[in-house]
Structures are given as C-alpha cells and as structure tokens.
Amino acid sequence: VEIDMVINVPNGRASRVAIVGFGTVGRSVARILCSNEVPQLQLTRIFNRGVARKRVDWVPPSVAWTESIDEALAPDVDLVVELVGGLEPADGWVRRALESGKSVVTANKQLIAHRGASLVELADRCGCELRFEASVAGGVPVLRALQDGLAGDRLVSVTGIVNGTCAYILSRMEHANLRFADALAEAQAAGFAEADPSEDVDGSDAAAKLSILSAIGLRLPVRAADIAARSIRPIERVDFNYAFELGRTIRQIAHASVQPDGSVIAAVGPALVPLDSGFGRVTGSENLVTVRGIFGGETSFLGSGAGGSPTAVAVVSDLLSIHRAWRRRDEHAAGPLTSAARQVSGDIFAPHYVRFVARDRTGIIAAVGSVFARYGLNIDAVLQLPDYPKDRLPFVATLEPCSDSEVRRALADIATLDWVVEPPLSLPMLPFGARREAA
Amino acid sequence: VEIDMVINVPNGRASRVAIVGFGTVGRSVARILCSNEVPQLQLTRIFNRGVARKRVDWVPPSVAWTESIDEALAPDVDLVVELVGGLEPADGWVRRALESGKSVVTANKQLIAHRGASLVELADRCGCELRFEASVAGGVPVLRALQDGLAGDRLVSVTGIVNGTCAYILSRMEHANLRFADALAEAQAAGFAEADPSEDVDGSDAAAKLSILSAIGLRLPVRAADIAARSIRPIERVDFNYAFELGRTIRQIAHASVQPDGSVIAAVGPALVPLDSGFGRVTGSENLVTVRGIFGGETSFLGSGAGGSPTAVAVVSDLLSIHRAWRRRDEHAAGPLTSAARQVSGDIFAPHYVRFVARDRTGIIAAVGSVFARYGLNIDAVLQLPDYPKDRLPFVATLEPCSDSEVRRALADIATLDWVVEPPLSLPMLPFGARREAA
Fold first, then answer.
1. C-alpha to C-alpha distance for A99 and A96, rounded to whole angstroms
2. Which end of chain A is least crowded, N or C, by CB within 10 Å?
3. Rounded to an integer, what distance in angstroms lies between the CA atom of residue B409 and that of residue B372?
4. Average pLDDT estimate for B117-129
C-alpha cells in the first residue's frame, strides 16, 4: 500500500509543464495541453526568444510567457518540453532541467543521436526521465513499440522511410516527372525543404534518426556520424522510368541490421522499393518503419512522420507516461544509449540497380559484363528504354544480391571505359539481405 | 532514493514464471524463456493436463512439469502465463493467481473481452498486473501503442484485419478462385480453421478482439456480444470478380468508431477494400490495425497476427514489462475496462457494394434505382460482367456513402421483386465515414 501511495503522488495533482521553444510543434503541444483532453498535465510556462511576437490568445492567462530560460526552469515546473532543436543551447538547457530534478521530453533528434547516451545517464543520476519518442517518425509511436512491445524479441534489422523532405522530392519527381533541382525548388517554396537542404537530402537527418532506432530497437549504439549516407541528388527522372519497368520506385531508405557474424550494417540513401510494397506506397509526410525479430518476424509502423499535431501527440504521450510513472527509472531505455558505440558498416547486401549513361557503340554490354564477372557479380537483367539520344544513352543492369562495396569497385573500373559519359549510379533494391549468407 | 529501491526489488533476481497451457504458443514462450535472450525471466513450472505427453527435451531439468494447477500456482511463482484459452477453467485460475499476488499474462481474447473488466479490477485490488497484448493481433504490439504511445491523442476510430482464418479463406477465394466451401475445407485441412469454424468465419473471434481494441484504443467499453457481426459465408467468387473491376478485394474488417454525435459504431464483417491499400495487401496470417486520432491522424500497425513465435513475443514482452515495473498499478489500463459498457451501433456509414442475382429482363436497373431513390440512396455505378447465364445473372451497384441500415431496408424491398433469384448481398467499402456528416 505504501508503495502505491508513493508512486501515485503525482496523480493527486496535474504535472506542471513548461514548453521551451514555441514553433510549430510547440504550438501544437500547447493546443493539446489547453484542450480538455489531458487534465493530468497543466501548461504553466512558455519560453521563446522574443516571446512577445509568439503570443496566442487561446492560451489561458494562467500560463506565463517568458524569454528567460531561468523562469522556464523555475522550481514549480515539473516537466520540460524541449523544442528548440539543434545541439546548443538545447543541450545545456536540458542538462539544467535534469539537474534541477525535472524530467524532459524532447523532439530533438540531433541532440539525442549525438548526446543521448550522456543525457540519459544524467537523467538516471538525477532520478529523472528523458523521453524522445517525437525525435523519430513524428507521431508514429515506434520507439515505444520497439522498447516495450517487442522487448521479448531480439530485433536484427530496422528499415524505414523517416525523412519527409526526401519523400516529398522523390514523390514529385515520380508523379510530376520533375528533375531533382525543380522538385527541390518546389519543396522549398512549399516549406517542405530548408534553404540549405543538405541535412535532409544528403542523409544526415535520417542518419540521426537511424542512430536512435538502432539504439532502441537493435540495442546497438551506432554513432550517426558512422552511418554511411548517400545523397538523393544524383537521382534523375530516367531512374524512375527504369524503376517502373522493374515494378519499383525510389525512396530514401534508412537501414540498420545485425549480420549473422555479429557485424552491423547501417546506411542511409536512395533505394529502389517495390511499387506495391509498404515502402513504395508511402506518400507525403508519412513515415514507415519495419523491424524484423528472430522470433516475431516483421512488424511495421506507419503514420504521420511530420507536422505539428502528430509530433505533438508523441510529446504529450511521453509527458503522460512520465506523469504516470513518476520518477521511476527505466534501465532498459538507458542501456543501449549508455554503452559504448559499436563499429558499423554501411555495406548493404542486396540486389542492385546500376544505371549507366553511354555513348552508344557495340560491345558495351559485353564490357560491363566482363567487369562485373571479374568482381564475382551476377547480372540479373539488362534494360534499355527507347527514345534516348545515342550519345547519351541511359541503360540499366540489375545485379543479383551483392555487397554495395563490390558494386562500387566494379563501377570504378567501368567509369574508366571510353564510352562512359557520366559516372554510373548504383542503388540497392529492397528487401536487403544478410551479407554473408553462406556463413 | 527509497522509491527506486522499492520499485527495483525484482531487478535483483529473475522473475519466476509458470506457463499454464503448453500448446503451440506455450512451447514458443518456453523457447524464448529457455534461450539466453531474457535472463530477467526464469521458467520454473509448466502445467498441462496429461503433461507427460507434452514433455520436450530442450527445457532444462530445473523446470517442474505438472498437471496440478496448485503446483503451477505455488508460492515461489511470481508470474503466471495463462494459455489454456476459453472462459473456464481459465477464468478461475487467473483469479486464483491474482488473489495469491501473482501477476498474469494471457493471450486469451475471449476471457479479456468477456471478463476483462472484473479481472483488471481484481488485479488492481490485489496489487498485481494483468496484461494481454497477445490477445489481439498476435505479435503486433498494438495495445501497448494505443495505450501509451498514442495516449496524448484522442482516438476516434479503429479498423483492422484481426482474424487469420478469414484472411486465409478470402485470400484463397481471391487467388485460387475457390468457392467459400472449398476454401474453408482447404483451411481446415491446413490447420488454419477449426472443425467448427463458426467463431472465426461468423465474426465472434474478431468481435472479441474489437471489444478489446475499443476499450484500450477508444477508451470505450463495448461488449463483444453487442458488436454486429456478419459472416463471410455469403461471399462468392463472382464478388471478387466485381471487386477487381472496382480496384478492390474483400476482407473481413473489424471496425469501431465514435461518431460526431458521440454515438458508437462497432461492426465485424466482410468489406471491400482497395487492392492497393494496406488492407488489400494483407496476406496470410498478417494482421493490420489502423487507428485515427483527432490530433495525430492515421497510424497503422502491421505484423504477424498468429503463430506461436510472434504471439510468444507479445507474451514475453508483457512479462518483461511487469518484471520492470513490479507491482505498479496502471490506472489508465484499468479505466476503460472497468467503466460501464457503452451502447454501440453496427450501422456503418460508407460507400456500399450491392450484388444482385437476377432473371434477366428489361427494367431491372430502373426498378432497383427507384427503390434506392425511395430510401434516399444514390447509385454511384452499375457493373455487369459478361458471360453469366441469363437466368442467374449477377450484377452490381455501388452506392454513395450511406448507412448499412438504409441499404438493408432498400434490399428488403428489392428482394420481393419477381426477377430476384436470391437475396442481394451488400458490403461496405473502405474507408468508412462518419454517419452524419452534415451534423
């Protein structure tokens, strides 16, 4: 009875919440907290730089608006929602909150990917919780599902579409037949891509999320910086035409897996996915994460990966979870984030799609075939669509399952041949396999 | 500090687990517990009637085999896994376990759907936990996701494919062009259907699961017996032909939703689903559950809905969760199961597919149209495939979104017309809508 009474302390009153960072997600969190849906949580403070221009009239007058972080972290605040993003000053503020005994909920993927281990350790030492469901896949409760719902399995791979900007650009290239540059410009105009889109299109956003998914799902700490990231910039319209011929389309895929020999593959980049698969059918800001366990097989999670409201649902769910389990430590969550980072490989083993642009002449297929043969790579099919100019003729070869590194070595040789107009493009094709199947 | 010490008591040693019921799932749970994956859990007892014939050699000698339920519920057991199924004697054994201070994990959907409220109350009174993730959608951790991961949202609808027998039969009708009776016989021969398949094909299995999903996801207690269930028995091969013409196929769908006026719709039965939707692509023993929340929009969960190993993952995940949060009460889980059952309607509002079988003559379409018009129903399209006999000519009308009850009233009138050879078949078409959109 005593135990229950101690644990239930916060059930007697609402937990007092401060929102630090009042952008799109912050406003959506406030919307939910100011509705009647979650009486367990009481919004008491909103922090933002230049907070005056942020004020909205639907927040009750009991909420204090402030541009002083000290006020946001005042003693009467129980829970802090960190939504400023980036490493600094977010990192310092989260530490201050934890050190003063406040649990923290964040949507900050870079902070968790890069500093998560030490922050979770700090939270543990302070008897607080640090939760970050919103940092991956927005409103899709995938971290919780991996950590708790599939705890009884040993997950060996995680594969996902987790970047909305790439999904938008590739979808527009696919459906509106746009070039990458035009699709990017459109995404920027529509607010789906930053002025500097590198973090999204070159893969570091997805790599940060994959690092978190690996830690929680595979219980493997993988540094985001160690994850091989390939840009979607080289994708051209013709690649979609060929992908369609193969019953496929192109998406940015984040993938991490434990190989039979215990090594780890982790990579982010464009990949061909079957048109009729879950990945092929992801549209707009949807995120899809599929995991495979040794006992339970494949399980998938699909939902809104971006947008204020879905992300806010993840934040509020985390707040409720802390409210309910007040100050209870979750050793399991801390485990994978606190152990030493693992070495990983980005050397995906999968069927591959290779697109060449050639100055047409006889003997090209033979030349390609002999290089591939030299590296032990087997061609599955060769495709050539009509109506392209003879001096810049694209054609495609698909390869039976092989290592990305083997393909690249072969392509480096092929790139030196005199009929090659531009460097060949290679893409892995879902589903990815295990590198050493004979092992 | 004291709090943590109290809560962490069981972390010092493994929790001792008894498996009650050693069938397919029980063996798979034992497999995981006897692997090195979950050292926190120690299998100590296995109960089954006539246990001698159940013995396997890969269980360590430290495990006691017994056919005495008293031994399975002995004082040194911490956690009981109930896998005998059905209401009795499972109900009595679960109560005994809870009353003696043991938390219980079960995969028993009928027990939870019919007695869940009082069992959760009993668990609360006894300071124990009762968990039942495995009772719905096998290895897909959907209950946990709804309860915790989406706790910050208010969910207003849940739609799922949750019965493997129906999925098998309908898939075989679709892909092998079998009649219902032949697909059922094949399913029975393959072990995917019981000798008496009523519980599966007529919908009470899915209704029990929908009752649990409604309680946990929509926080609406709905009695399984109050859920309108329609059998898949009337589905014929020709329905798949017409469904294909519409870009659709047929699945057993379980659906519950809160209408704008606060009323509740809950129904189980065959429905047309888009071929290229998640529901249309579910195969084999996959389960798919999609929920919609007022803040987060749609979220979907897909995975293995049956089979020993996936279901065992759900059981072991529940065991681990209890091990971690030893004896902490979860008021949230109890809430919807313990409040009074809500009145529900099975009157789905959706576009409808209606298939007639007619003795061909002129004026049939006009007659159908005038009856539908009398009930305010709008025809969207009329289809008639070639090559059927004139005296048993199937044709199909699709209707704009309307209530199931309106369609049935119109069909009762049409059934009296002289050219009608057999009673018309109506099916709702995904996505289902809100009944009173003008409200």
1. 5
2. N
3. 9
4. 91
| Tokens of residue B335, six digits | 């809430």
What pLDDT does B342 receive? 62
pLDDT digits (tens, 9 = 90+) for B13-41: 899 999 999 999 999 999 999 998 999 99
Catalytic residues of A: 209
**Residue B388 tokens, joined:** 């059927």
Q: The tokens of B409 are what?
A: 């009233």
- Is residue A153 exposed (0-12), middle (13-18) or buried (19+ Cβ within 10 Å)? buried
pLDDT over 50 (residue B336): no
φ, ψ (nearest 5 deg) of residue B34: -90, -5
Residues of A in contact with B295 (CB under 8 A): 28, 31-32, 309-310, 312-313
CA gap A351, A340 in Å, rounded: 32
- Which residues does A102 contact at the CB level (< 8 Å), separation at least 6? A73, A77, A78, A79, A80, A128
Task: Collect all residues with Cβ–Cβ distance below 8 Å to A324 and sequence separation of at least 6.
Answer: A11, A40, B330, B331, B332
Cβ B136 vs Cβ B158: under 8 Å = no
Instruction: Quote the CA–CA distance of B147 and B113 in Å, as a whole number.
Output: 16
Lookup result for tokens 């050699």: B57
How would you classify the pairing of strands B64-66 and B41-47? parallel
Q: How many CB atoms lie within 10 A of CB B12?
A: 6
Q: Is the pTM of this model over 0.90?
A: no
For residue B356, give the 3-state DSSP assignment: strand
- Please tell me the distance from the alpha carbon of residue B167 to that of residue B174, in angstroms, as a whole number: 10
| pLDDT at res. A119 | 94
Strand duo B248-258 + B264-274: pairing: antiparallel
Q: What is the dihedral of CA B347, B351, B355, B360, to 10 degrees?
A: 130
Mean pLDDT per 10-residue section of chain A, whose length is 439 residues: 30 86 96 93 96 94 96 96 96 97 96 92 92 94 92 93 94 94 95 92 95 91 87 90 88 89 86 88 89 94 91 96 64 42 73 91 92 94 88 92 92 94 87 56
Torsion angle, alpha carbons of B255, B286, A279, A310, to 10: 40
Select the residue of A144, A299, A302 nearest B139 (Cβ to Cβ).
A299
Which two tokens mark A257? 């897996």
The residue of chain A nearest to residue B287, with distances taken between CA atoms, is: A299
Asked whether the predicted pLDDT for residue B1 surpasses 80, the reply is: no
Report pLDDT for A343. 66
Instruction: Tell me the one-letter amino acid at A134.
Output: A
Amino acid at B221: P
- DSSP three-state, residue B365: helix
Helix (H) or strand (E) holding A305: none
Side chain identity at residue B411, one-letter code = L
Residues B237-254 pLDDT 10s: 888 988 888 888 999 999
Q: Are B80 and B61 in contact (CB under 8 A)?
A: no
Of A3, A37, A133, the CB nearest to B154: A37
**Residue appearing with tokens 């065992």:** B312
Using CB atoms, which residue from A32, A150, A317 is nearest to B148? Answer: A317
Query: Using an 8 Å Cβ cutoff, are A248 and A220 in contact?
Result: no
> Facing residues of A395 across strands?
A356
- Report the half-sphere exposure of A49 (CA within 13 A, side-chain side): 4
Helices (H) and strands (E) in chain A, counts: 15, 16
CA-to-CA distance for B144 and B156, rounded, in angstroms? 17
Residues of chain B found within 8 Å of residue A315, distances taken between Cβ atoms? 152
Calculate how close chain A gets to B300, using CA atoms only, in Å: 5
> What are B264's two structure tokens?
């509740």
